[in-house]
Every structure is written in C-alpha cells, then in structure tokens.
C-alpha cells in the first residue's frame, strides 16, 4: 500500500469512526432537514463544509495556524448544537416537491463551521505525521479519505430520511424535530463533559 493510500484509508476511518462521532453528528445536523429529493442542495451544503475544513486542515497541518486543541474540542460540539437548534426554525414545505428559496444562511454557516472542524481533523493528522518532512501527499490522501467517508455518511442519512418521510409517511416536521432533538441532546452532553468547559465554569 502506498503512502497516499494509507492516509486515504486513515482519513476515511477517522470520519466514519463511531468512537469519534462528533463529526458524524455535525453532518447529520446539516442534513436533517433534507431527503434524497434535495440532493442538489445537499451537495452545495456539503461542498461549503468541505471547502471550510479543507482550508484549515491544510493551514494547520502545515503549521501556518495554531489553535489550542482543547479549544477546538469545545468549539466542535458547539457548532453541532447551533446547527441542530437552527433546524427547529426551518420552514418545511407541505410537499416535498415545492421549491424552497435558493439562498440559505446554512451555506455560509457550513463553510464557517467547516473551518472549525478542519482544525479538529488537523490535530489528528499532525499526530500521525510526527516529524515527517513531506506532508503534501499524506494531506491530500487524508482529505480525500475524509470526503469519501463524508459522502457515504450523507447518503446513509438522506436514504434513512427518504425511507421515513416518503415510504413510512412520517412528516418532515416530525422527522426534523425528532432527529434534531436527539442531536441537541448529544451535543449538550459533549459540551458538559468537555474538560475546558468544566474549567470555565470553575
């Protein structure tokens, strides 16, 4: 296995690892209001998130920016919580085929929060790289691995949503409220159990 393939696998494993489910939760929070019918909107949304985390993943891994890991570990569940809460204010059309407005603040939000998650990815990648001189190939492989894993997660979430809404006839509003509520609860748990958060509270 080449170095590129090894880091591609590591990137894929990192984002799909159930033990580090914070990134999965964020992707779920982003996609909860959509189903497979909305795949074009989701592609734009995920692309915005990808651009964000790719920028900080590269800059941080190359040592151009540096933020304390414990700060990032607290900010990530905060981004999850904020995104999930935003879902409750989403106006769901009565029919899946009614067009919603083209612009949504979710796109710049996904880009901005992607910057935070990229710093989280970089902490893991830098630990793997150690003092390795050439980081271009590992960085590229790791990032592509992240994207492949992310696309699979998105597809699974949208497929489950489609099954629940279009086949089982669960309303979009109920689906959104249930899943977003679960994510909010899990995000709050991550925040409360965060060491830096406990230090701040004293």
UniProtKB/TrEMBL annotation:
Provide the alphabetized UniProt keywords. Answer: Membrane, Transmembrane, Transmembrane helix
Keyword Membrane assigned to the entry: answer is yes
Q: Quote the InterPro entries the UniProt record gives.
A: Put_HupE_UreJ (IPR032809)
| Name of protein | HupE / UreJ protein
Organism from which the protein derives: Dyadobacter koreensis
The membrane-spanning stretches of this chain are 20-37, 42-65, 71-89, 109-128, 148-168, 175-192
Q: Write down a Pfam family by its short name.
A: HupE_UreJ_2
